[in-house]
Amino acid sequence: DQQVKQNSPSLSVQEGRISILNCDYTNSMFDYFLWYKKYPAEGPTFLISISSIKDKNEDGRFTVFLNKSAKHLSLHIVPSQPGDSAVYFCAATINSGGSNYKLTFGKGTLLTVNP
Amino acid sequence: EPEVTQTPSHQVTQMGQEVILRCVPISNHLYFYWYRQILGQKVEFLVSFYNNEISEKSEIFDDQFSVERPDGSNFTLKIRSTKLEDSAMYFCASRDHKAPNTEAFFGQGTRLTVV
Predict the structure, then answer these.
(1) B53: Cβ–Cβ under 8 A, 6 or more apart, which residues?
(2) Which residues of A touch B41 (CB under 8 A)?
(3) Which of A101, A109, A110 to mutate to test the interface with B (most CBs of B within 10 A)?
(4) Contact criterion met (CB < 8 Å) for A102 and B45
């Protein structure tokens, strides 16, 4: 039961261009979404998040867009840099604000930024 | 910058043996989690822990698994009798208790290999 789906296992872009990573979810109860970046042999590192009350959140080169009606979110990286090359995980949770905060992850998208 | 630390980084054990994976969450965080990632698969939730008790656990977290916060700083995951299919990266995470919309911070992981 894939409640969070990242349908593209990999993405390759040129340095300086925009990277767009996509994520779909099926559980309409999810109200908080996060993107994590993971390098090999390291743990996931938090990148950016968005609450369901917003449709956009921006942090430097990273912007996350949320389309609730389509149950779709995307991460835009502009401009892409070689150091951005990593696996990107989309995650979602029902954010009750308490201890019931269970992240459901997608399978990840391997982003390769070519110099 | 505060971080979640996990030890050991790699653990090799024989099938049927008990293993304890250790984590030191970020101090003043009160929500703790274990996740795992089997090679090539997605990161999966195992258990969440708050106020010295399990608040939620997944189907994976059966009677062979247990968690403990033995002192004020450590958070451990014990697998009583390991199976081959327990081989995975195990990630500990912690989260700030103060705000509802906060991210979980992950450790670098322990690679468990059951032979």
Answers:
(1) none
(2) 107
(3) A101
(4) yes
Q: What's the pLDDT band for B113 if we cut at 50, 70, 90?
A: very high
At residue B16, does pLDDT exceed 90?
yes
Q: What is the Cα B14 distance to its own chain's centre? A: 20
Q: Do B56 and A95 touch (CB under 8 A)?
A: no
Beta strands in chain A, from DSSP E residues, in sequence order = 4-5, 10-14, 19-25, 32-38, 45-51, 56-59, 62-67, 72-77, 86-93, 104-105, 109-114
Tokens of A6: 């990242």
Please tell me the predicted confidence (pLDDT) of residue A98.
Answer: 60
**What gap in Å lies between CA B85 and CA A86, rounded to an integer?**
26
User: What one-character DSSP code corresponds to residue B63?
Assistant: T
Q: Model confidence over A19-77: pLDDT tens digits?
A: 999 999 999 999 999 999 999 888 999 999 999 999 999 999 999 999 999 999 999 99
Classify burial at B86, counting beta carbons within 10 Å of its beta carbon; exposed 0-12, middle 13-18, buried 19 or more.
buried
Tell me the C-alpha distance between B106 and B93, whole Å: 4
Query: What's phi and psi for A84, nearest 5 deg?
Result: -80, -10
Q: Rounded mean pLDDT of chain B?
A: 92
In whole angstroms, what is the distance from residue B62 CA to residue B78 CA? 11
